[in-house]
Amino acid sequence: MAGFTVWAPAAGRVRLWLGDRELPMRADDNDWWRLDVPDASAGTDYGFLLDDDPTVLPDPASRWQPVGVHGPSRLHAPGSYRWGDGGWTGRALPGSVIYELHVGTFTPAGTFDAAISRLGHLVELGVDLVELLPVNAVNGTHNWGYDGVGWYAVHEPYGGPDGLMRFVDACHQHGLGVLLDVVYNHLGPSGNYLARFGPYLKEGRNTWGELTNLDGPGANQVRRFIIDNALMWFTDYHLDGLRLDAVHALSDSSATHLLEQLAAEVDALSTHARRPLSLIAESDLNDPRLVTSRDAGGCGLAGQWNDDVHHALHVLLTGETQGYYTDFAAPDAVARTFTDAFFHDGSYSSFRGRAHGRPVDRSRTPGHRFVVCLQNHDQIGNRAFGDRLTRLVSPGLLRVGATLLLTGPFTPMLFMGEEWAAGTPWLYFTSHPEPELAAAVGRVRREEFARHGWPEEEVPDPQDPHTFTRSTLDWSELNAPAHRAMFDFYRRLIALRRTHPELSDPRLDRVRVRHAELAGNRYLVVYRGRFAVTCNLSRRRLRIPLDGTPVTVALASDRGFTFRDGEVELPAESVAIVDLGVHPDGR
After folding, report:
1. Domains of the chain (ranges plus CATH)?
2. pTM
């Protein structure tokens, strides 16, 4: 016996398609069409026929699209999977290190099962949470994932729903939590049939597509569709958290914003599951109300991405100051972001041409609520040639950046391959089967980069299969001494962060930063309790004064350091975590 339901207020008649059968469905007063079929079970292909249209449409809430987003749905029974993570108690965001990966390019095979074979590497590195780029069903074989149209289904080339279950189960048995990137602000350009069923969309567009209907007629069911999807990832797939893509593009004028409603329901589920379930927003608003508790008037999310920290560190290391990096050339950019979280907290943004952001209450908002990085899929993939930081700075400065990231007051996130300074690019790639759509995507991409100064004819074609394969990690690089040395440095940094609570202390009002120059040579010191994270950013050896007397060096990127009363001497482009024995204020 299987029960079929679909919300279809736009249809006057709905029939269930079961291969050689078409069965009429009945609607209730809320426009839900229902039918129980005694001889249907897991593995049965099905779809819906609306009114007199002979086109079989996939289920808007399909769990399984084995032949793609345009094909029929297939019944999936999540309860049939035998989980082995019964002892799993979860991973909370505070104190954790996140590792972002794209399933299709993490390994040459590009599947969940292939990724499972590399989990030992992540355990050795010391990360806590694996964050997957979107895995929902998209048209074509490979894609970043943000063109998804089957929000409930798992992309079949990765291994489908059972593959994701195996991956999460294996992660938990390795002691790793799993976060999933989900997209509720728009749908992809191919395979979106939702509007045929009902008012899932409303007038207007954001950067990526039509707006989701969160506050118009019929919005109650659309909001339920989204929230039930989020809850499904936690219940059926045992996920530990969701990264909510571009929440600033969620157009919602309701008295209770979708994010607040979602957070309340996830908190309730977390209580029942007796393990932490985290919601992390990507937002361009620089608004701390996202992570402010609901009883204090906020949305109550566990965390939010903070691009300002990335921008400040990127400019510090690379010297790039074009576009949105311009304001972060300010000498105090790192100091401001490390102590105030946001650089733009109501200040003027030259990139936007207006004031931007809102201040963070440093005494009440812990830094671990802000997820920060040196590199991520956006900051690499949205460069014309997919340049990792490896291509832009020296290995010495890479180590400086990693140390600042992993000893800061925030929740650090690494992008796959960063830990060994991977030499492979990570480009923007698609595999749209429709020729017109494929051509349009390539043209828009080239024009966009041309406006930013890249030669249009040199921008890789997103549809070229080579663009995709070039973006796949080359695991053999770990056999090279230089890459292995970088991996060992990251591993030791994370272990040191675990050992000394000062290096993960999220209290923003306990951070002090000094950025200065000596005879035109730059250095930076970040005080974290009794530790001074001392960075020589120049190309020559420097003596750097400290507020205290060095006792020992806990970790250094170069063995050529020396220290004496009140100062440390560092080789060019190097970093040392100096133990001062006591906190500079005497504690």
Report:
1. 2-57 (2.60.40.10), 98-499 (3.20.20.80), 512-579 (2.60.40.1180)
2. 0.97
